Protein: Glycosyltransferase
Organism: Ambrosia artemisiifolia
Amino acid sequence: MLNSELVFIPSPGAGHLPPTVELAKLLLDRDQRLTVTIIIMNFALGPEHNAETRLSTPRLRYVDIPCDESTMALISPKTFLSAFVEHNKPRVRDIVRGITDSDSVRLAGFVVDMFCVAMIDVANEFGVPTYTYFTSGAATLDLMFYLQAKRDEEGDDVIELKNSESESVLHVPGFVNPVPAKVLPEVALDKEGGSSMFLNITKRFRESKAIIVNTFQDLETHPLEYLLSSSNDIPPVFAVGPILNLENKKTDDHKSDEILSWLNEQPKSSVVFLCFGSMGSFNEKQVKEIAVALERSGHRFLWSLRRPVPKDKFDFPKEYENFEEVLQEGFLSRTSSVGKVIGWAPQMAVLSHPSVGGFVSHCGWNSTLESIWCGVPVAAWPLSVATESGSRLEMVVEVGSGNLRSRVLLSKPIVETEPTTAATETADVTTMENPPVKTVVKETKASAPRKPKNPAAHPPYLEVFRLHFVCCF
């Protein structure tokens, strides 16, 4: 009997490959009839993928598509992802054709990242179904469907929400609280192509055979209940999370060892960890603002700090050669007994370390799930479309009711003259000493499904998805 081959296509974003690989491994563990090819669309400006993430096995292989730098330079930063995926369609088609020419496997379907749904066209050419892997949360998916329906089914100009009165709110099905129009993701309201890209991607989700979401029921009860019961032309939704690369807790490079050695010397739950994802960075004045707040707070801290990229360029933040070029004179020496400034951080290894008691985060979905898994409270500082979603707003409102001073930080510069309340709270609301928040975090950690060591003991939603897929063999 021929094996059934699944083709996985992750987004080129640094936070998208690891959960894609982990999902593929989980499916392979649970069905010996499956083989997987992961097609990686590279672009030269991205960071190198972790070697341990890409270890091939007899049933799991990786195929790299080289970056065409001359073409990439012509793509607008506003619509980079959609144009990048379109550009790679012919190359993906050629790779898949090679799979179909094989006598040893049968092509069974595509599993595409949320930003790669244009590859549905390629899957259709080969007559196989496409499953969308939504690597953010259910609340974000819920909000995206809501905005797309307002445009395509109700005829509303979503961009005009940007000009709404400041107190205007949206009642999104599946959300506990109304959403102020002013906190909608910037890209959804962008007039220069970002809004159309965002909503057109969402529209194509509806063409999927099913949508796999990296979340779990106890974390996003209300959005999942809506998505699972909806009759609004939404495909079946499977919550299969939390899917994490737990191997990232193991490090063997010199820089990681140095960071963990420093953490080993700190008291339990005493360190504030500041890290803002693969795309997160601040300008020089903002960096100085945060530095003043940290120094005034007196908290122990570990700060992942990287150089920002030009606003008109799609790129990843780079490493500083010398942190003194951006920090106040004497900051490093004055804080050397309580703090450490680093570049790239082995995030999972840091969050799981017992000395870490708080996490200042951009709230990317991987970071959110990792903080929950490790039971570390978060001070949320959203920076981009993936982190401005209503899921974060809902968490802030519900956790903060009367027990925690909370602030939603939008994608706006912090005041650049003197330390503001928001910047000071970068250190102060880490919640390390806040009993109500610590209780909520512990309860949420306890509710997160743990992956069993025995592959036969299937997490319920992952097994339901597997059975749904197997029916298509």
Remarks:
- DSSP finds 16 helices and 14 strands in the chain.
- The mean pLDDT is 80.
- The domain at 3-242+449-470 is CATH 3.40.50.2000 (Rossmann fold).
